[in-house]
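Researcher: Re-running this chain for the archive, since the previous output was lost when a drive failed. Same request as before.
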Amino acid sequence: ARPGAMMIKASANGLQGTGRLRIVSRLPFKVGFDDVKLTPHPTQPGVMRGRPPAHWLSAGPKWEVLNLDGEQVLARTLTNPLFQRTMCLIGHPEQKNYTVQVDILTDGNRRSMSSAGLVNQRYLIVLKGNHQSLEVSSNMELLKENVRYPWKAKKWYSLKARVDVMDGGDSVIRAKVWPRDEKEPDAWAIKVKHPNGHT
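Model: Regenerated C-alpha cells:
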C-alpha cells in the first residue's frame, strides 16, 4: 500500500456508514516535494501551488507546496491567522526511538524571525528565530532547555533530532543543527534527559 488517506463507505440492510482510512509509511522513510503537481493558486495570480500529502493530519489548510528558487518546498500558508502557529502529524503514533531530520528556511530579517522545527515523540525541537537558540521542550512547565545557536533568515539549515527511551523509562533527547550546504557536525548541539519520558 502507498501512504495516503481516503473515505470508505459501507452499506448493509438499509444502513450506511463512512470511515476514514489513513495509511502511513513504516520507518525509515524520506519525504520530498519535487513530485507534487502544482496548479494555479486560487487567490494569488501567477503563483503555482500543490497540496501536502493527504495522510499528514491537519496539513491541508496550513501548508502548501511552492516553488522556491527552483526547488519545490513545503511552505506555511498564512491565509488564516489562526494557523500562524501550527503542527501536523506525519507518522504513526506508536513509532519511537527514531531519528528525524528536516531542512528549514525562514523568512524575516535580523530583527524579526519566525521559529521552526519538528516534533519527535511529543518533544518539540525548535530553532527559535528571535531568541537565536535551539530549544527542546515538552509542555513548557515540564521540560524546556535550550542552547544558543545564531542563525539567519533566508538561509537553509538542517535540523536533526533523536529520542531514545531507556530501559528504566527515562528519555534522552538529542538535537543538532547546521547550515544545509555544510558538513553535518559529529557532536549533538543539545542533549536533554527527561525522567519518565514520552514513549
